[in-house]
Design brief:
With 289 residues, the protein is of the alpha/beta class. It has a single domain, classed as Dihydrofolate Reductase, subunit A. Helix content is 25%, strand content 24%. It has eight helices and twelve strands. It has a ten-stranded mixed beta sheet, sandwiched between helices. It starts with 5 loop residues before the first helix and ends in a 5-residue tail after the last strand. The relative contact order is 0.22.
Length: 289
């Protein structure tokens, strides 16, 4: 009998959980996507649940991937919580948007080290309907894993993504520890260390990823990584789910410093048991094409 790997067991559990979860639908509050050159994403199942297509931007140039930020926030805008489920985004946001539509077209999912530090952590699409959509759009089963780390304190020995040869993993780090990290992952050829300078330049890192065939990146936090991407002008789409409850650490919006210039192009409201949850798609520095 073939041996079932820890990653295969993890993936099976994630898929079963997503498929077994009763998902609430959405209805459209506003749709200003026309004329903006956005790419529609969906199949019959997802469109019925989402009340239409999900959208992403096209890459703006031939040197950088197009980057989206995906965040859940409480009613007052907080995004940091010891248990993210307490922010109130709900199961539909988790399985259908956060681990679903926002990653269907992603060549890679990017996260800060704090977000990726859990041993049982792989960023992918899990609901069978959305896996089918991803494959139908010509993508490999799992996106690459891109981790931004300034200290390199990651669970290399026990973390799933660092011990699964079928995954592509990129570690973006500063010059001071790049060689040390390369030595630590020397026996893991599926893990590549990207020396992004000191301080880290995400612009340079994304150029490198583009050279590796990464065209679409879904960035899922934390705030430090998100803020750095915004400061360097690297984000095009922001997918923001707002819950109807208070929660999270006070004064922790998804960005640090001045708020980014956003134009809302799509707004959805959840129905049924998750009524009160709101999903919005914003463009950064958006202008009609």
């Amino acid at each position: 009998m073939p041996t079932v790997t820890p990653f295969e067991r993890y993936a099976k559990r994630k898929a079963e959980l997503a498929a077994a979860t009763k998902l609430s639908g959405f209805y459209t509050v506003a749709n200003e996507t026309a004329g903006r050159g956005l790419i529609p994403i969906g199949n019959g199942w997802s469109r019925a649940l989402f009340d239409g297509d999900f959208y992403r931007s096209e890459p703006a140039d031939r040197t950088h991937p197009v980057v989206s930020l995906v965040f859940v926030r409480s009613r007052s805008g907080n995004t940091i919580a010891a248990d993210p489920s307490t922010l109130g985004g709900g199961e539909t946001d988790k399985h259908f948007i956060y681990e679903g539509l926002s990653r269907v077209d992603a060549d890679a999912v990017m996260a800060g080290a704090g977000t990726a530090r859990g041993e049982r952590m792989v960023f992918s699409v899990w609901h069978p309907e959305l896996v089918a959509l991803r494959l139908a759009r010509g993508h490999p089963r799992h996106p690459a894993q891109v981790i931004v780390t300034g200290r390199g304190d990651l669970p290399f020995e026990s973390g799933l993504m660092f011990n699964e040869p079928t995954l592509r993993v990129f570690l973006i780090t500063r010059s001071l520890i790049a060689d040390l990290l390369r030595e630590r992952v020397r026996r893991r050829p599926w893990v590549e260390v990207i020396d992004a300078g000191d301080p880290v330049s995400l612009d340079a890192a994304l150029r490198h990823l583009h050279g590796k065939g990464i065209r679409i990146v879904s960035a899922v936090g934390g705030r430090q990584t998100a803020s750095a991407l915004l400061r360097e002008g690297l984000v095009r789409d922001v997918y923001l789910t707002t819950s109807p409850i208070e929660g999270g650490e006070p004064n922790t919006p998804f960005y640090e410093g001045s708020p980014p210039p956003l134009t809302r192009v799509l707004a959805k409201a959840a129905t049924g048991a998750e009524a009160g949850v709101r999903f919005e798609h914003f463009l950064v520095d958006a202008a009609p094409v």
